[in-house]
């Protein structure tokens, strides 16, 4: 078998990777991830000797020990990094290696030995113990457990992981250094597709890509947006997204990039005014600003400041809007400052309408409205366009499953982490536990199959009724994702049944051994003495 050898350094340490020429892309990425001892969601970058980022794939150019590439972990999961530092190892890495071991054994032996089940049980148990301490300290809970049975107050102080000043200054400096670089045409075209892999880009680079979107849609010239004001706006947006597992700056970028891709794929530049496109792109950028990692149900049940301020009506979405216009109120970050008042009012109204549409409690209302106007949809009708804009940001917001599985699946892991964080706090505070967030009831595939079948596909298919070209770009991948998680769910169920059968067989064996031991002890003791009424025959 013909192989390829890649020479590189990791933390100054010389390494080499060897893999077959036909090796799948994910296996190559996993190979480099193992070399970096990186967690499953850590972001890796490979640099050539000139310092340019190159894609980690089977198509890597072979090199020599004298021209090594440099491998870096540019963004590490905060939980795994802290735990790894404190414990001396990475629990996520251990779990990943255990999964790889199980796969190899399954291929070779056809079944999973009991010893692997036992190892998995021990790792799960260890994680559970860690989460009872580290997990809650990550959430920033400062609870006095000496209160006994006193019902917890819904106003416990929580520390959202906001970005530090040092972190922001570092990223801002890198962004400003990169902001004048000319992005290649290849990347510009790639940016217009749903296949774009966000995990290959760090935050400063992401801001450069957002700048490219505003430039290539002609917003800079059309709406007189100065480059330094746009850069300050993007940095302020970056600063106001928190370091939480899912609703973070990278999620903001993914939603914006999908919106950008949909604008190009559906040729909306010919069908809608530029100001409407500006509203949609900026709404996507701002749609989850200062998200705390706890959804509206939690905000309302816990009677948080946001719920009280907005009277339980879409507290998060109202807050995202408020933070967006707080940024836009500052002259140095107001990208709309050169527009006449009537245009600014139109933009403000449109952004608020779009961001409020991302509240999933309004899903059926908005989808049914779109379905009702679809047969006679008219791009000249403002009401029709307003509903379409809401549909487009909704599609963009929940579009991860339309991406390649190697991009989408890590996002699901991040989402479940945030869900489980919330349900843990709900239990701790004596609040109603959101069912689809309960780590004791939800599995990875079960969280997706129903959501894809009853929420994603119906929404995406209605949009494709207006734009048939989207069938291959976003609906086919979502159907594949549904098949993938359906098969995963069946495999988990089979594994559960096999485990139950193994445990029952083990119990039966123990019972049989116990009965045999009992019989042997009776036999050793000799025949029982006769009692009145007993008759013995020779």
Overview of this protein structure:
By secondary structure, the protein is mainly α. Among the domains are: 3-77, Roll (Ubiquitin-like (UB roll)), CATH 3.10.20; 165-401, Catalytic domain of cyclic nucleotide phosphodiesterase 4b2b, CATH 1.10.1300; 444-468 and 477-501, no CATH class. 59% of the residues lie in helices and 6% in strands. It has 20 helices and 5 strands. The protein has a 5-stranded mixed β-sheet, covered by helices on one side. Strand 1 and strand 2 (13-20) form a beta hairpin. Helix 10 packs antiparallel against helix 11 and helix 11 (274-286) packs across helix 15 (341-356). The chain is globular. GO terms for molecular function: 3',5'-cyclic-GMP phosphodiesterase activity; metal ion binding. InterPro entries: HD/PDEase_dom, PDEase, PDEase_catalytic_dom, PDEase_catalytic_dom_sf, PDEase_CS. It comes from Monopterus albus (Swamp eel).
Oligomerization: single chain
Q: What is the 3D form?
A: globular
Side by side, the strands of the main sheet go 2-1-5-3-4
The proportion of residues forming helix, as a percent range, comes to 55-70%
CATH class of the domain at 165-401: Mainly Alpha
> Low-confidence parts, pLDDT < 50 over ≥5 residues?
77-89, 129-159, 529-538
The CATH topology of the domain at 165-401 comes to Catalytic domain of cyclic nucleotide phosphodiesterase 4b2b
Structural class by SSE content: mainly alpha
Rg result:
28 Å
Q: What percentage of amino acids are in beta strands? A: 5-15%
Number of strands: 5
Task: Count the DSSP helices.
Answer: 20
CATH superfamily of the domain at 165-401, by name, is 3'5'-cyclic nucleotide phosphodiesterase, catalytic domain
CATH architecture of the domain at 165-401: Orthogonal Bundle
Task: Please outline the major beta sheet.
Answer: 5 strands, mixed
Spell out the helices and strands N to C: EEHEEEHHHHHHHHHHHHHHHHHHH
Would you tell me the overall average pLDDT?
Answer: 85
> Terminal Cα separation, in Å?
78 Å
Family: Belongs to the cyclic nucleotide phosphodiesterase family. PDE9 subfamily.
Region (Disordered): 493-538
Catalytic activity: 3',5'-cyclic GMP + H2O = GMP + H(+)
GO molecular function: 3',5'-cyclic-GMP phosphodiesterase activity; metal ion binding
